[in-house]
Write a structure and sequence with these properties.
By secondary structure, this protein is mainly alpha-helical. The chain has one domain. The chain contains 5 helices and 3 strands, in the order H-H-H-H-E-H-E-E. Strands 1-2-3 form a 3-stranded mixed β-sheet, with no helix packed on it. Helix 3 runs antiparallel to helix 5.
Amino acid sequence: MVKDKWRIPKAISYTSWTQLLLDTDKFSYYFNALKETYNKDKQFQEYMSWDAKMTKRELNENQINFFLEEHLLLYLIVKGKVPLKNEFVQGKEKWVLNCYPGKPLWGQMYLHKENFFELENLKNKYENSWYDLEEKKLYDFERVDLETIKL
């Protein structure tokens, strides 16, 4: 048997999206509060409308809920509110960077910039960042001007 020298079994873990939602304390509280904020915040609504156009989706109630759930869970992950299981990083600095093939959505950036829940994760130097795997580009939401950015 040939052992793959590049594979570190303990560095690989998998958790479904649904399990992350179930494991997140107070997710329903955060979601309901974010939905209420969205319903009152005209700027947030405008950004989510742009997101729907960019992703070629109809902005109906289901799509709004989908965007809010996705934005919120990714936000809570980098803020350290979602338990991520990974045996490999025991006792080591633990930071999380959201990576995806594509640019961040405006609603996601707005959630980070406004930080409605006033959450902070000083252990995570990438708590307000997004990495675009296609363009190999890091977006630092603290430095992004949503009024002038062209994605």
